[in-house]
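Worked example 4.2. Below are the chains of a multi-component assembly; read each line carefully before continuing.
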Amino acid sequence: MNLDLIDYFQFEFMQRALISALVVGLCAPAVGVFLVQKRLALIGDGLGHIALTGVAIGFLTGTAPMWTTLAVTVAASIVMELLRSHSKTSGDVALAMMFYGGIAGGVYLTGIASDKGVANLQQYLFGSLLTAGWSEVWTIVIGGALVATLMLVLRPWLTAICADEQYARASGLPVAALNLLLLVTTAVTVSVSMRAVGLLLVSALLVIPVVTVQQFTRSFKATMFAAMGAGFLIAGAGVLASAARDVPPGSTIVLLGVAAFVVTALIAALTRRIRRTRRAHLPPEGEPLEVELPTKA
Amino acid sequence: MPVLNVNGATVSYGGRAVVRGVDLHVEPGEAVALMGANGSGKSTLIKAVAGLVPLSGGTIELFGVPHRRFRQWKRVGYVPQRTGAASGVPSTAAEVVSQGRLAHRLLGMPARRADRAAVARSLDEVGLSGHAHCSVDTLSGGQQQRVLIARALATDPDLLIMDEPTVGVDAETQAALAAVVADRIDAGCAVLLVTHELGPLTDRLDRAVVLADGRVVHDGAPPRPVGEHADPHHQHAHPHANGTDGTDDLWGGK
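Applying the procedure described above to all two chains together yields the following structure tokens:
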């Protein structure tokens, strides 16, 4: 079995698949941790839907879909942020519009493009790691490195605007610019990682590693680093498992992630229960009750 | 030069004026309470001062600089009303308090020794240095409120703005907070405090401004408790109260 797996990685396409998946697994949670904090966990999925329109524009114009996707998702994230901050449209209404409009735009434009016989939306919807070339792998590596560096350097500021936007504004931080930066970075992550896990599943790698590790972490910093590690492991294990079973890597990665979340959630619930019964911690000191408890008759 | 100078401030929400032509002045080192019933516009006024809601009329000057051109937000410490504690991702008390130092740091630069020292000192001031690395979610309501106050203290403010910092905080913690704030007042920090109750925090006040229906109805000596409230044995903590404000008003006042 192990020998078989090593054999698989003698093929260049498997090496490329593994490298891209590991990079995306490492970098996506670095953005996702802020989205979860901001309660925008679904924005990755929203931008993924919009990205369909971008892919279709790529088909229509004959340019590489990654670049048209990047342009469309960045534009969409700017519109989304303007809607959120300058109008009374609530975040989830804007998100709903993205879901419907993005899918419809993608299918409509692909319908036009299919006359030319080039459309294959499926590989972008669900990912096609195995057909990526080296140039695409390099784009993923460079894009991922940029995204991760930016998120790590700006962590305290982004944490502040995501945790308490009002306080961040009252302390004079450039909240609008940072919000925009976060959404544009999400758009870049979605466009770059569509090769690895596919547009419909990209949200998973943004969110699942974060919600998996935060059941055990106490600090934001630890959550961020642990989520990046968890994403790396999940993506790597997903590619290995998909190679062994000869199934699509994108869905395998996501299923592994969901399984990891369920298992850790169960373990976390169990450990909490054990701790409570053992009373390892004394209950927090409170004020003495200033009422007289009724005595039982 | 006053620390805060509000002239004829008017704030409207959707065409309805909530704050109407309010004047408010705070001198350096002065402690002023902004009082009034629920809906009197005191929280809205303080949000306008903190730059969170736009003015529809009048002017606000901070440290002699018009609001629009004011950039030295690190001189202002803001304690928002505590909202539901649970956040998406866990953060430690030290991480939340260090947000108060961001205005002192250049974007993207790591924290310096002075920043870390200020965080440790403010946590110590509110008596939470032992909880610096606890997740905020696991702290009690009063402790969470203290974290928010430590965050405002960490910026070394010359003006401390607090929006109802004692809501849901037990009497013991209120007294401790009053001592912390009194220290800052003695050190020359001006304080603007929104409150609708008299307590340990209001003992150190120089002045009170009372709003009713968006207008100033009193600007002068802080109100003293009368009647039942003046009795030192009067129970301010109502063990049976469900925590919602203004239950007293339901009965037309006491």
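Take a moment to check your reading of the output against the notes. Residues 238-254 of chain B have pLDDT under 50 and may be disordered. The beta strands of chain B are 4-13, 16-26, 31-35, 57-62, 65-66, 76-79, 159-163, 190-194, 207-212, 215-220.
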